[in-house]
Amino acid sequence: MKIVGYSDRFSVAPGEKIQFMVSCELPAYRADMVRLIHGDPNPRGPGFKERLVETSASGEYPGRKQAINSGSYVSVPDSPRLRQSGSFTLQSWIYPTTPGKKTQGILTKWSAAHGTGYGLFLDEGGNLALWIGDKDGRVERIRTGKPLRASNWYFVAAAYDAQSGKVWLHQEPLAAWPLDDTRAMAEHSTQIRTLGESDAAFLMAGYWQRGDSGKEIVGGHFNGKIESPRLFGRALNRDEIESLKKGAAPTNLGAALIAAWDFAPGSSSRKITDTSSHALHGQTVNLPTRAMTGHNWTGIEANFNRAPNEYGAIHFHDDDLDDAGWEVDFELVVPASFKSGVYAARLKSGDSEDYIPFFVRPKKGTVSARIAFLVPTNSYLAYGNEHLMDDPKIQAMLGGIGSYPSQAQDKYIIEHGLHSLYDRHTDGSGVCYSSRLRPILTMRPKYNTQVLANGRGAPHQLNADLHLLNWMEAKGHEVDVITDEDLHFEGADLLAPYKVIVTGTHPEYTSGPMMSALETYSENGGRLMYLGGNGFYWVTSISPEHPHFVEVRRWGGTRPWEAAPGEYHHNTTGELGGLWRLRGSAPQKLVGVGFTAQGIDRNSPYRRQPGSFDPRAAFIFEGVGKDELIGDFESLVMDHGAAGFEMDRLDYSLGTPSHALLLASSSGHSNSYQHVVEEVLIANSSQGGSVNPLVKADMVYFECPKGGAVFSVGSISWCGCLSFNHGNNNVSRITDNVLRTFASDDPLPR
Fold this sequence. Notes:
Low-confidence stretches: none
Structural class: mainly beta
Distance between the termini: 56 Å
Oligomer: single chain
CATH architecture of the largest domain: 3-Layer(aba) Sandwich
Helix content: 10-25%
């Protein structure tokens, strides 16, 4: 890909401004605004459909390459107190996860351009090292010669005595095992007597390096946890260092203390607090993971809110990314003529193209339709830049299907180290934050998720949702578009004016305010159509201060990675992560069905169940024969059938309302489909689709108070069948029957 971009927001109303950031390796590019109607080019369906919209932003723009600088760290602004020219001591607890991978900064005030300053590092061999440089650029790098072990806590310190030229390096593992060859208490001599001062910011988990352009940039990112970093203005002796290791307060050392940073306070923010009297506060950059267990975590309390003194660590990664920070290339004030819908800035340069999707909602306080489509933007973020198949273990588990990566987007994602909430960092820990302020190349028209259909690929998320939006337009339904982020911040008031709320195909990631708003909507006469599967599954937080990213801490569900013990609570909101089900809010309570199975080979049809013949459900099946298999034909998602990929089932014990009707169920799924692990309490070989009756999709209907109702299909693949035979099929007919009835003012059948 020679051209890529992103926008500063997902949701925008007429009259509001949206900005676009672009990186183009060619001299120039063309930008146009298009309305996305159908994003799937598969010739078995309607094909790719877009509509050009003339705007003031359309035109030619000069190309320029903009870099993605990943890696998290803490930056403390320069201060005379940090410009050490004489004796000092650096001290911290660290938990390195990739020692020996490369040189990694721990606590540094270093100028690569001049070779001046000081810093505590892990060198390329995984040894603790102190770098010092004088004003003439003479540099000495002193190391212990004993590499640290990965994923172990160490107390580390380095003291420099300018008068004697002595340096002491101290690294001691928390676990005091005999014959431990990683323990080091070494004394060295140096010829340097006066340090050259650096005016660069003081960094934690990185150091200043010379970039390709000659400018200094932050590199050498540390992988792992750092806790309780401190700086003293003299060389502490061994007894003083030992007392710090045993937990003595740094203030006991009086005027020697320059800074003592505590990572526990403000864990929902970017602020880093210096508890010394000098107030040398800093801030995190690129979203390192906060509210992490420290070296003193006892395991007695698993909630950082109740034991903050045991959660004084931050986990840094060399591939963290918060905001790509690109400069703005062009912007658009959305014209009043834009109807609510899915749009994109289409970028073209030579043979390269990219689309930057965004969603136009009605102006706040207004609606333009009786139906609202709730765009699952949290799920778009969660899956954004997913590249699980790049992991050889995943490829082996899937039987080596497909030749991955085959799409330009996937190649760019891997080359630039972009991640989704399904991926792991380079140190093996799970990615728990996903930001929209960066290119999200899986959220593109024409893109397929390659793992589906046994490696042949199929639409997912945005492109699967465009199957539905295109169908609604073709059937003459007027629809407003609103996003998860809109709902999170505006709540039930956003939904109240609409007769019907229609979900996307995979609304998996839901915040607490969203759940509350949807419950309130249903309780007050709203009508909800859940046209997907595996919805309302993971507890998802949106930062109150920085709403451009979401947070998920995985545990207890069907998951690609699991948070470490004691780290299940979200730092952004303080709430317990994991499944909504494990917090007493199973999806069955909201929409009657919840996640039961997943597979990636092919789908199956539904067969009508006795509930479909109840007079209450007669309107749903008008024009559908009693013996018809539902969705037993081509699908744009995994070739054939309406029930598949990820599926939900009715379960009264988990909260399905007792009056809910089971309308139809699928069957005949292969052993590619497996029952969800949260329901398998004892390992066994009876969880595949050929033997487990819980591997199915259930279609459900029930009424709510004040004339409301819920209709759920329990399958991600349902909407992939809507366009078969130009929309003349029973999946389309059932969906249209429900949507027209729900959108009308007529009372529901009794």
